[in-house]
Write a structure and sequence with these properties.
The complex is a heterodimer of chains A (441) and B (306).
Chain A (H helix, E strand, L loop, with lengths): L1 H20 L1 H21 L10 E7 L4 H11 L4 E5 L2 H10 L4 E5 L3 H9 L9 E4 L4 H24 L4 H17 L5 H27 L28 H30 L2 H7 L4 H30 L8 H25 L3 H18 L11 H7 L3 H12 L6 H25 L11
Parallel strand pairs in A: 1-2, 1-3
Antiparallel strand pairs in A: 3-4
Helix pairs in contact in A: 1-11, 2-9, 2-11, 3-6, 5-7, 6-7, 7-8, 9-11, 9-12, 9-13, 9-15, 11-12, 12-15, 12-16, 15-16
Chain B lengths: L1 E10 L2 E11 L3 E6 L6 H8 L7 E6 L8 H5 L1 E4 L11 H11 L4 H14 L15 H13 L5 E5 L7 H16 L3 E6 L2 H7 L2 E6 L2 E6 L1 H6 L5 E6 L6 H8 L4 E4 L2 E6 L2 H14 L6 E6 L2 H9 L6
Parallel strand pairs in B: 3-7, 3-8, 5-6, 6-7
Antiparallel strand pairs in B: 1-2, 1-4, 8-9, 10-12, 10-13, 11-12
Helix pairs in contact in B: 3-4, 3-5, 4-5, 5-6
Classes of the chains: A mainly alpha (441), B alpha/beta (306).
């Protein structure tokens, strides 16, 4: 056992010395993820700056009092930066990317919308032209448009603030109902009775509005919202650097794993592997020492990156420290086993490096390091659950800004460890046993 | 010390080593001589347990398989490649490889110093191989195989790319190791090295042993132990010269006439007299001893060098 320990320790020590001897590479391996994480963290930092208003173009083809009210409401919404322009210009602006979406209020909106509110008559169609590369914007614009159109239409009908507008709209609705043959007699009778009530409300609202300019009467949103960030502690702002450091740590440490694997291939090419295999040590010890040293190196790098995150970017382990350490160790082990798998399956360092980088970028991308996984289509979100990097990043998130306890770390640790074991087992199974290369001279 | 019998290794249908047998004894250097692609490196790999033969067996120290830890501890491999870690010092390299053989603490430190001293690098213990010359790297390569004090040393082309002075230094080291009682196998395609170092030479070609003997024994197989080289302007009737003087083989390529002599003292004057009697002018006369190149040519019909 002593000889085993001596050989094992010597091999691990050798790998550590060789890795950290290349100071430039080590420094870059630490600085690069810090720099990129800082950049992404700053971009997504909502606590320091208000979210940018979404640039939206609008074309009002209706030119009615109702459409003017809608336009005014949209202009008053801080989530949108509204710019009125002709329809062709609006569409062009979206195509060029200067506007994220364009809203076209159709001609006849004021005539058709009130009737449609009561289920009578065809609904007017408001066209939204949106930038397909910003698909998430569509839902936001549609939601805000719905809110303001509903409010404007119902307010126009029910409030007395603009009696002519309200009575006029109701009169047009009655006319439309009278000529709509698709509405049966019973429903027509009920709706007309409703309109009579609405008219009485209008008259009452007009009197109340004359007495007081405050408030509006209409179908507004039946609730108010209070937004609270789901962070570790009440009142605590989201630290976007926590997620960006998680993502970039995972990415760049996996790149280090690639270098582990390439290093083994280089050792085989240089004859070093032959010398190691000629020694009285088992294949298991040789490969096991590689896993051990790779894990240690990954842990040191992770510690250095997170030291910067803690010191300069306010990242904190708001959750379980043990959980954080567990996720870190499991991921470091995964990195080492991944590197060994590369060496086991690779042929030449040159051919292997390109494929390994591609595989790593795929793992990192699906893990949510670049783009949050919630923007993935549903099938891809499901697929990402089978990617260990997703669990590693989620685990680091859970232990930092989400403030999860140890139980929240168990699944990420378990799945990452299991992935490491699978990688390691395949690597050991597939690692070449006989001397590589051609029959000799 | 090491006994290899009937070793056979094939890759696909191509036999790289076929029915090879050799024996290493303490205090002797056995040369494994053959051109590139003869199967030398594959043989070395099988002897040190890196490669399992398809047939045959290797026994180390009378009882051990070289692929077992006991067998491996008795063997030191000097690979053809410079298997050194450039970022570790010379002593660091030796300490690592010594640790793999179970050396630790003071014993390992002592062995490291001894191995470096053996190859003449004791004063460069703390320097990195990246600062060494080619010859020094080769010597360090040998030291790494010596650190655990093996009984058997297998060297696969250990002087590739080395200048003559460093090569001589390496040869001196190897002869000293032989004199210290180690068994050495020296694989090379340089006949001069085999001639200088080896007590026995195993000649390989296309994976098979074509001859195995001492240098003198191999040379005795040749029809001529010496060659008389004569530069002349005339075309010589070589068959008549050989018949009249009882020498041979006799060949002429351009101006150079080569006459094989079994006995220099008696036959050389006979040849010179014959040439003079027939009116052939001789511009230059020299003698050359037959060498392993001639042996290989006689045995295989091919040149040893590519």
């Amino acid at each position: 056992m002593n000889a085993f320990n001596t050989a094992f320790a010597a091999l691990v020590k050798k790998d550590l010395i060789l890795h950290f001897a290349n100071r430039r590479s080590v420094v870059m391996g630490i600085l690069a993820p810090i720099a990129i994480a800082a950049f992404f963290g700053y971009l997504f930092d909502t606590s320091r700056q208000a979210p940018s208003a979404i640039p939206v173009a609008l074309t009002d083809l209706d030119r009615s009092a109702l459409s003017a009210r809608i336009v005014a409401a949209l202009k008053g919404d801080s989530a949108i930066a509204l710019a009125e322009m002709a329809e062709d210009s609006a569409r062009g602006a979206v195509t060029q990317g200067t506007q994220r979406a364009a809203i076209v209020l159709p001609e006849g909106l004021a005539d058709a919308a009130p009737a449609a509110l009561f289920g009578a008559g065809a609904k007017p169609v408001i066209t939204i032209v949106y930038d397909p590369s910003q698909a998430a914007t569509l839902a936001v614009v549609r939601g805000l448009l719905t809110q303001h159109v509903m409010t404007s239409v119902s307010e126009s009908i029910f409030s007395g603030r603009d009696p002519a507008l309200g009575r006029g709209m109701l009169a047009r609705v009655r006319e439309g109902l009278a000529s709509d043959s698709s509405v049966d007699a019973v429903r027509r009778r009920d709706l007309l009775a409703l309109f009579d009530s609405v008219e009485r409300v209008q008259q009452g609202s007009a009197a109340a509005s004359a007495a007081s300019a405050a408030g509006s009467v209409g179908l507004g949103l039946p609730f108010d919202t209070r937004e609270l960030q789901a962070t570790a502690h009440a009142g605590q702002s989201y630290n976007s650097f926590a997620h960006s450091f998680a993502g970039m740590s995972v990415q760049f440490i996996l790149f280090t794993g690639i270098e582990f694997g390439i290093g083994v291939l280089m050792a085989r090419r240089l004859g070093l592997w032959k010398r190691l295999r000629a020694a009285p040590i088992s294949r298991g010890l040789l490969l096991g020492s590689r896993i051990a040293s790779g894990t240690l190196i990954a842990l040191v790098l992770l510690a250095a990156i997170y030291a910067a995150a803690f010191t300069f970017f306010g990242v904190r382990i708001e959750g379980s420290v043990i959980g954080f350490a567990g996720v870190a160790i499991a991921f470091a082990l995964l990195t080492a086993c991944f590197g060994l798998l590369i060496a086991a399956l690779g042929r030449t360092p040159e051919a292997t490096r390109g494929l390994a980088i591609f595989a790593t970028l795929l793992l990192v991308m699906l893990g949510g390091a670049w783009v949050p996984s919630f923007v993935f289509p549903p099938w891809l979100q499901t697929a990402s659950l089978f990617v260990p990097t997703r669990w590693a990043i989620d685990g680091l998130d859970a232990m930092t800004w989400r403030g999860g306890d140890l139980s929240a770390a168990l699944a990420p640790i378990g799945i990452t460890l299991a992935s490491a074991i699978v990688c390691g087992a395949v690597a050991i199974w597939r690692f070449p046993t006989e001397q590589d290369g051609a029959p000799g001279g | 010390m090491l006994d290899a019998r009937g070793l056979h290794k094939a890759y696909g249908k191509r036999a790289v080593v076929d029915d090879l047998s050799l024996h290493l004894d303490p205090g002797r250097i056995v040369g494994l001589l053959g051109p590139n692609g003869a199967g030398k490196s594959t043989t070395v790999a099988m002897l040190c347990g890196l490669l399992a033969p398809d047939r045959g067996r290797v026994i180390v120290g009378g009882s051990s398989d070289p692929s077992t830890p006991q067998g491996k501890r008795r063997i030191g491999l000097v690979p053809q490649e410079l298997a050194l870690y450039d970022e570790l010092s010379a002593a660091g390299n030796l300490a690592l490889f010594g640790a793999l053989y179970g050396l630790a603490g003071h014993a390992r430190a002592e062995r490291v110093q001894q191995a470096l001293a053996t190859v003449g690098l004791a004063d460069r213990a703390h320097d990195k191989p990246s600062s060494f010359s080619g010859g020094m790297k080769r010597r360090l390569n040998i030291a790494c195989a010596l650190v655990h004090n093996p009984d058997i040393l297998l060297l696969d082309e250990p002087t590739v790319g080395v200048d003559p002075q460093s090569r001589n230094a390496i040869f001196d080291n190897l002869l000293a190791l032989r004199d210290a009682g180690k068994a050495l196998l020296y694989a090379t395609h340089y006949m001069e090295e085999a001639e200088r170092l080896c007590d026995q030479i195993v000649v390989m070609d296309h994976g098979r042993v074509v001859a195995a003997d001492t240098l003198d024994g191999l040379l005795r197989r040749l029809p001529a132990a010496q060659v008389l080289q004569i530069d002349t302007d005339a075309a010589i009737d070589t068959a008549r010269l050989a018949a009249d003087t009882g020498t041979g083989p006799v060949t002429q390529v351009g101006d150079r006439l080569s006459v094989g002599l079994a006995d220099l003292a008696t036959q050389a004057p006979r040849v010179l007299t014959w040439l003079a009697a027939h009116g052939y002018a001789m511009r230059h006369v020299a003698t050359e001893r037959a060498d392993l190149e001639d042996v290989f040519l006689a045995l295989t019909g091919r040149q040893l060098r590519d």
